[in-house]
Amino acid sequence: MDGLRRSGYQARMVALAAAQTDSLVRSRRAVGFWLSVVALMIAAMVVIGGLTRLTGSGLSITEWDPVMGAIPPLSTADWLDAFHKYQRIPQYIHEHQGMTLVQFQFIYWWEWTHRLLGRLIGAVFLLPFLFFAWTRAITRREIPRMIVLFALGALQGFVGWWMVESGLETRVSVSQYRLAIHLGVALVLFAAIFWTALEYFRIPSPLEPGERGRGEGALTPAHSRRDVAQISSPPHPSPLPHMRGGEGVALIFPVLVYLQMLLGALVAGLHAGLIYNTWPSMDGRFLPEHPFFSAPWWINFFENPGLAQFDHRIGAYIVALSAIGMWWSAMRAKAAGPARTSAYAILIITFAQIPLGIATLLDQAPLLLSALHQLTALALLSAALWHAFEMLRSLRVKDGSFSAAKAARAALPVSRV
Ligand code: HEM
Hints:
This protein is mainly α. The protein has helices at about 1-55, 75-85, 90-95, 100-135, 145-165, 175-200, 220-230, 245-270, 300-305, 305-330, 335-360, 365-400, 405-410.
């Protein structure tokens, strides 16, 4: 009788643990989904930023007011005031003399939309974050990382203004260095949020002891481990059963793509897409004319448009060769599941991006192609991060540092047996 009562009690506890596991998985997926939305919004922000630059709109708002700046000019007097401020900067004086108010409004709306989206991203990050922290879908241990992500977003707003400022005094466009830093911080933010989203989708919660279930009765370790194993183990014990050392390459590849994107920002910032519009040669040469014209020689890598374009071309070939190498080693190791899919994604996106870059160059950086080239670069960065994540995950599965048992200890109620 006593035995019967105990087994009924145990069954209820296992059901409770299963329900808890279910709700844990659901709440972590919700956080992952929210972070994916934020990452998508940042991607849209990067593309709109590129379009703002390509339409020559980036300097149209000459002030920075993070709060009140959300309100656009509402009356004719307000519009004239904003236009007069723009008429004082070198870009208007040297390049846009005679611009009409309607033409000014066109470039103003681009920059205003770019900044508004930035504010919106801040709100879409902050409000759900507070909710998820309150409901413990984000654990106490995970909160500092979220705060760092939010601070990085705020820093990006400041870097954006710092970039715009460089085009208000003496130059007719922004500094290519600040443009590259602005894109660089945006990409770090995008990568960090994307990676964190993957963690919420693919790794169970590292709950602190104080946050584990309270008041549960006897639950055998065997039960709890088996339940959590269902969410923590990948469909295959290791997606790359025979792989050795491929993880290192997979981690370096996103860095290569990142650097190549920064080189792209230098090309864009130096308007280097408007020269040497031939491929594979640069107007019949391998190197641009006078590649080391300025002194010191190394400054040419950052300030000589021809050399910046040359670097971006070479960078693309290095990325392409690395993508083939990674795909090949993944296939050789019989990669399975997401590790295999992401290796294919890298290969396909790389070989879409290169002709797109060439077309952008041959056509002197038209609006649509340039925006598509930038969007595809983001897709490549995402695929590279995803692949690195899966490889690292498989390594942790192999190591046992990410085993079902460990996840069970962390995620389920403490057994009293
Ligand atoms: C994996 C390969 C590549 C990646 C990841 C990549 C990435 C990028 C990025 C992110 C930008 C835009 C920066 C910005 O707007 O701030 C850019 C610009 C550019 N890229 Fe690439 N690129 C690649 C290959 C190529 C190739 C092969 C070419 C041509 C040979 C090329 C030509 C250009 C040109 C002309 C621009 C300037 C467009 C503009 O002024 O808006 N790219 N690239």
